[in-house]
Write a structure and sequence with these properties.
Shape: globular
Oligomer: single chain
Mean pLDDT: 94
Largest sheet: 8 strands, mixed
Structural class: alpha/beta
Helix content: 40-55%
Number of strands: 11
Number of helices: 10
Strand order of the largest sheet: 1-2-3-4-5-6-8-11
Low-confidence stretches: none
Radius of gyration: 19 Å
Length: 266
C-alpha cells in the first residue's frame, strides 16, 4: 500500500478510492469529468470498499471529486450496448425475473453497508446528487451538504423507480407525502430545504464543506466506540418497536453498558 498525504491508500479503481487515516476512512468518487456518474463497476468497487475497511475504522466519509457529488447513473446504461462486459438494461429486461432480481440485489450491495452498526457514515455532498447519487447520499447515516447542493430523484421521469435502497431512508427522513412528491415530480431539493426537512444534518458554504465534515467526524470519535454502537442500534430499531418495547431495549442496552464499565462484561 502507498500513502496519500497522511492517509493510507487501500485501493483506487473503477472510479472509487478508499483511504484510511486512523479511525476515519474516506471513500471518494473519482470521475469528476463525468460528474461521478455511476456504473456497475463503480458499485462493485463501493461494495469492495465496505469489505476492505480495517477493524479500527469508526467513521466513514463519502465524497465526490469535482463540482458534483454524483450526477446519477451513467446514461450509457440506457444504450443498447450498455457497458463493456456488462449486461445492458435491455438484456436484463429480457432475462428471467429471478436473474433480474439477483442483478439488482448485487447492485444494491454498494448501498447497504454504510449503515453498519459498528460505523457512522457521513456523506459530504456538493453540487448534483441525482438519482443514484441521491440514493448513495441517503445510504449514509448523516449528510453534510454544501449550499450549492441539488438533490433530485429522477428515476420516475425515466419510467423507472428508485431501486438502490433510497426509498426507505427518504420516507424515514421526510415522511411519505414529501417523499412521494420529491420522487414523482423529480424536482430539485436545495440546501435550505434539505436542512429544514432533515435530509441534511448541516448545510454550509462550499468552501467550508471539508472542514465541517472533519469537525463532525471528530465529534463522533469523542465518545467511546461501544457507547456509539449501542446508541446507533437503539435508534435504528426504534421505528420498529412500540414505546414500551423501546423502553425495554434502552434498559437492556444500558445494563450492558454499565456491566462493561464495571468490568463485568462477558
Amino acid at each position: 500500500m502507498t500513502t496519500l498525504d497522511d492517509s493510507e491508500l487501500v485501493f483506487d479503481k473503477d472510479g472509487v478510492r478508499l483511504t484510511v487515516e486512523d479511525a476515519v476512512a474516506t471513500v471518494t468518487l473519482t470521475n469528476p469529468a463525468k460528474r461521478n456518474a455511476q456504473s456497475p463497476a463503480l458499485w462493485r468497487a463501493l461494495t469492495e470498499a465496505g469489505r476492505s475497511l480495517p477493524g479500527s475504522v469508526r467513521v466513514v466519509v463519502l465524497r465526490g471529486e469535482g463540482k458534483s457529488f454524483s450526477a446519477g447513473l451513467d446514461r450509457q446504461a440506457f444504450t443498447p450496448e450498455g457497458f463493456d462486459g456488462e449486461p445492458s438494461f435491455l438484456e436484463m429486461a429480457r432475462g428471467s425475473e429471478e436473474d433480474l432480481d439477483a442483478i439488482i440485489a448485487e447492485y444494491q450491495e454498494a448501498f447497504t453497508w454504510w449503515r453498519r452498526s459498528d460505523l457512522v457514515s457521513i456523506a459530504a455532498v456538493q453540487g448534483h446528487a441525482i438519482g443514484a447519487g441521491f440514493q448513495l447520499a441517503l445510504a449514509c447515516d448523516l449528510r453534510v451538504v454544501a449550499d450549492d447542493v441539488q438533490f433530485a430523484m429522477r428515476e420516475t421521469s425515466l419510467g423507472l423507480v428508485p431501486d438502490l435502497t433510497g426509498t426507505y431512508p427518504l420516507v424515514s427522513l421526510v415522511g411519505y407525502a414529501r417523499a412521494l412528491e420529491i420522487c414523482a415530480t423529480g424536482r430539485f431539493v436545495h440546501a435550505e430545504e434539505a436542512e429544514r426537512t432533515g435530509l441534511a444534518n448541516i448545510a454550509v458554504p462550499v468552501a467550508e464543506l471539508d472542514a465541517a465534515v472533519r469537525d463532525l467526524s471528530a465529534a463522533l470519535l469523542a465518545a467511546p466506540r461501544s457507547a456509539v454502537i449501542e446508541t446507533k442500534a437503539l435508534l435504528q430499531g426504534a421505528s420498529g418497536r412500540s414505546y414500551e418495547e423501546q423502553r425495554t431495549a434502552e434498559r437492556t442496552a444500558q445494563a450492558r453498558r454499565l456491566r462493561d464499565l464495571a468490568g463485568l462484561g462477558d
